[in-house]
C-alpha cells in the first residue's frame, strides 16, 4: 500500500480564505503582514490570488497585480510546516502563467535583502536582481532587492 501524503492542489482564492491566509502570514514574518480584509479586496478587484491546499487546509498563497503590461507579486508565503515540498514553486508558476495570460511582459517583486533563500528561489525561476530600495522594509528596517522576470 502507498502511504505517501496526499498531493496539494493550487486553486483560485475564494471569499472565506482570508483568515487562513492571514494566519500563514503571522507564521511567516518575512511576508507582508496585511490585515485579512486586504485579501478579499485583492480578489474582488481582479488581482491574481492563488491558494495552495493540502488535505483541505490552506498551506500557501500568492497575490499579484497586473498594471498595464507588467505584473507585480505583492505577497506570498507557504506555511512553515509545509515548506520545501514544491508548494511555493507551484504557486509561483501558477501566478506567472496567470500574469502571462493577462499579457504581462514582465513580473516584478521585492524581497528582503536578508532573505537569501527567497532570492535564490526566485532566481531559479528566472528572476534577476535589478535594483535595491534602501530602507524599504520596516520592523526591522531593511533594504529590498527588486527582482524582475521577462515573460516573453
Question: What can you tell me about this protein's structure?
Answer:
- The chain has a domain at 9-108: Aminopeptidase.
- By secondary structure, the protein is an alpha+beta fold.
- The protein is 27% helix and 38% strand.
- Strand 6 (128-137) and strand 7 form a beta hairpin.
- It has a seven-stranded mixed beta sheet with strand order 1-2-3-4-5-7-6, sandwiched between helices.
**Segments where pLDDT lies below 50 for 5+ residues?**
none
Ends apart, CA distance between termini? 44 Å
- CATH structural fold name of one domain: Aminopeptidase
Assign the CATH architecture of one domain: 3-Layer(aba) Sandwich
User: Rg from C-alpha positions?
Assistant: 15 Å
**Total strands:** 7
Secondary-structure-derived class: alpha+beta
For the record, the CATH class of one domain is Alpha Beta
Which sheet architecture does the biggest sheet show?
7 strands, mixed
Shape assignment: globular
Query: CATH homologous superfamily of one domain?
Result: Gcn5-related N-acetyltransferase (GNAT)
Average pLDDT over all residues:
88
Helical content stands at 25-40%
How many helices? The count is 4
Strand order of the largest sheet: 1-2-3-4-5-7-6
Residue fraction in strands:
35-45%
Amino acid at each position: 500500500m502507498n502511504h505517501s501524503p496526499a498531493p496539494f492542489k493550487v486553486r483560485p482564492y475564494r471569499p472565506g480564505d482570508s483568515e487562513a491566509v492571514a494566519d500563514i502570514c503571522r507564521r511567516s514574518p518575512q511576508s507582508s503582514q496585511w490585515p485579512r480584509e486586504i485579501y478579499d479586496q485583492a480578489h474582488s478587484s481582479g488581482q491574481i490570488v492563488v491558494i495552495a491546499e493540502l488535505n483541505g487546509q490552506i498551506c500557501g498563497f500568492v497575490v499579484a497585480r497586473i498594471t498595464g503590461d507588467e505584473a507585480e507579486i505583492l505577497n506570498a508565503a507557504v506555511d512553515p510546516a509545509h515548506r520545501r515540498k514544491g508548494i511555493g514553486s507551484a504557486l509561483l508558476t501558477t501566478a506567472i502563467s496567470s500574469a502571462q495570460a493577462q499579457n504581462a511582459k514582465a513580473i516584478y517583486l521585492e524581497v528582503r535583502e536578508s532573505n537569501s533563500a527567497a532570492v535564490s528561489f526566485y532566481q531559479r525561476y528566472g528572476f534577476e536582481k535589478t535594483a535595491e530600495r534602501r530602507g524599504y522594509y520596516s520592523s526591522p528596517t531593511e533594504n529590498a532587492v527588486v527582482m524582475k522576470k521577462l515573460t516573453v
